[in-house]
Amino acid sequence: MDIFIKNIVDLLKAEIPLSEDEIKGLIEIPPDLKMGDFAFPCFAVAKQLRNAPGKISSELAQKLAASELITDIKAHGPYLNFYVSKEMIFKTVLDEVFTESDSYGNSDSGVGKTAVIDYSSPNIAKHLAVHHLRSAVIGNAIYNLYKTLGYKCIGINHLGDWGTQFGQLIVAFKRWGPELKDQDSIKDTGLDISKLNELYVRFHKEARDNPSLEEEARDWFKKLEDGNEEAIETWQYFKDISLSEFERVYEKLGIKFDSYAGESFYNNMLDDTVNRIKDAGLSEISEEALIVNLEKYDMPPCILRKKDDASLYATRDICAAEYRKREYDLDKMIYVVGSEQRLHFKQFFKVLELMGYEWVNDCVHVDFGLIKFKDGKMSTREGKVILLEDLLEESCKIAMEIIEGKTSELENKAEVANDVGIGAIIFSELSTKRVKDVMFDWNEILNFDGETGPYVQYTHARLCSVIRKCGETVTNEIDYDVFKEDDELLLVKKLESFPLTIIRAAQHCEPSILSKYLLDLCSTFNRFYQHHRILIDDTDLKKARILLVDSVRQVIKNGLSILGLKAPERM
Fold it and tell me: Could you tell me the pLDDT band of residue 488, with boundaries at 50, 70 and 90?
C-alpha cells in the first residue's frame, strides 16, 4: 500500500501547498471500485489555492501524469481519483502481507515518540465490576494501536487509592472486621476483597443511623494523611489485597499495565504543584477553599484544596500530569475516562494551559458512554454490582454451550470457549463508537452470525480450515495475473486499507474503526467464499486464491490481536 500512496504523494506535493504527511493523512479509499483505488479531497486545499474544489480536481487531473503504478487519474467532483495497476495491487499487497506476517499493518510513524495511556483506574478495596470494563478494554486497544504505530507506550492504572473512603473503611475494619488480639499482624486476618466490600457497604448502612461514624472516618483519613503508622499499615494491606485481585481479573482479559501509580503516589508532590499554581498568580481563596477561578472560560472553579486543606482529584491530576511529562518526556497523554468526567478534564487541562505548559495540547480525554442493563444502574455503596469476573465466567460458560451444540469433535473446547467468551465481551465494548452507551444483551454478544466477536473469530477459523484442506504450503510465488474477479479485487483492496485503518483508529482513539473494518473484511470474504471455489483443479488459480485466503486470515488475526482478542484456528 505504501508504494502507491508514496507515488500519489510524490505526484501531488509539487502541485499543492501541503506537506507530505498532510497529503498522506488526507488520502482516502473510495467506497466504489468505479471511483478508483485512492482519492484526494481537493476541498482540503480550496482556501490555499483560492479555487473551487471541483476546478482544482479537474486541473490536477490534466496536469498529473500516469505511471507504471498509477495507470489513470480522473476528477470526480471535488475528489481526485487515482487508479492503480490491478496486477501490481495484488502483487504489492499480498507480498507485503505474506512477508510481514504478524507485523503487517505496523508503521514507524511513532518511532522515537512516547504515548502515556491512563486507563481502568478502579478504586482499591472494591471488586472490579462491569462498569470498570469499558475503560480497561478501550484503553488496552488504544495502547495496542499506538504500539503498532511504533510508539513507546506506557500504560498507567491510576488507582483510586486515596480519599475519605479509606477513613470509612478503616473505621469499618476496626469496628466489624476480624479480631486482631490473637494474631501477630493485620496480614493474618484472612481478609479478601469480598469481605472488604462487605465492610464498605456496612459502613454506609450504619452511618445512616449513626452520623458520628462519618466524623470518625474523617479523623482516620486525617491520620492516614499525617502518616499514622496504624492507618498506613491498614491502608497498605487493603491495597495489597486489591492489586492481587485486580491482576488476576486483568489477566483473564489479557490486559497488563506498566505502572500502578495511583493517587497516593503523588502525595509528596502535591505541595510543590500547588505552590507553582500560587506563584503563577492563578489561585485565590473562595469560601475557605483554594481555587483557580475559571469563570471567564465558562467553567466552574477548579478546586485545589478544600477548607480542611485536603486535596481533590483535580490537584492530583495536575500533579500527575507534571510528573508524567518529567518522567516519560511524553509526546501524547491519553486519559480513557467516562463521559461524566468531561468537565473535570476541561478544567484541569485549562489549569495546565494557564500554568504555561504547551504540552497540554498533547493531552486528550478519551471519553466513553455507559454499559446499561435492563435492571438499571449499579451502586457499590448498596452492594448492587455485577462483578466483572462473574460476567466473564458466564460468557465463557454460554460460549461452551454454543460450541458443544455446534461440534463434538473439537479437542480444546475449554480453551476455545474461553477465547470466544472473553472475546465476545471485549468486542461488544469496541464494536460501537465509544461515546455511545452500550446496552448489554447476551443474545447479540454471542451471536456467531451477527456483527460480533465470535463472528470474526469464526471467520478466522473457517479460513484456517480452508488452508488445512488445501494441504499445501502457502507461497507468494504465484502468477498474479490470474486474479480476474471483482470479488478478488474487493478483497485485496480491503487488505490494502488495513494499515490506513490502524492509523485512523489511533488518530481518533476510536477502536470501533478497527472493529468495523474487521466486520467488513469478514463480510467481504464470506461473499467471495460463497461465489467462488478455492480448492479447484486450476493449479495456478488455486495457489493464488490460497495466498489470498491466507492473507485475509493474517489480517483478521492481526486486527483481533490489536483489539485484545484471540484468533482460534478451530471453532
Answer: very high
pLDDT score of 410: 86
Burial 365-387 (b: 16+ CB within 10 A, else e): bbbbbebeeeeeeeebeeeebbb
Task: List domains and CATH numbers for the chain.
Answer: 2-84 (3.30.1360.70), 164-249 (no CATH), 388-563 (1.10.730.10)
Residue identified by cell 474461553 is: 418
- Nearest alpha-carbon partner for 274 in 318, 313, 224, 308: 318
- Within 185-265, residue ranges assigned H as helices are 193-209, 212-225, 229-253
pLDDT-based confidence at residue 185 (cuts at 50, 70, 90): low
Nearest in space to 145 (alpha carbons), one of 119, 100, 106: 106
Q: Within 10 Å of residue 183's Cβ, how many Cβ atoms?
A: 12
> Mean of the pLDDT values across residues 252-264?
96
Q: Report the pLDDT averaged over residues 143-152.
A: 98
Cα-Cα-Cα-Cα dihedral of 273, 276, 277, 283, to 10°? 110
Q: What is the 3-state secondary structure (H, E, C) of 264-326?
A: HHHHHHHHHHHHHHHHCCCEEEECCEEEECCHHHCCCCEEEECCCCCECHHHHHHHHHHHHHH
Query: What beta strand segments (E) does 45-101 contain?
Result: 70-76, 79-84
70-76/438-439 β-pairing: unpaired
Instruction: Indicate the pairing of strand 371-372 with strand 438-439.
Output: parallel
The residue assigned the cell 461452551 is: 400
Entry field: residues in the chain: 571
pTM check: above 0.85: yes
Give the three cell numbers for residue 81. 481519483
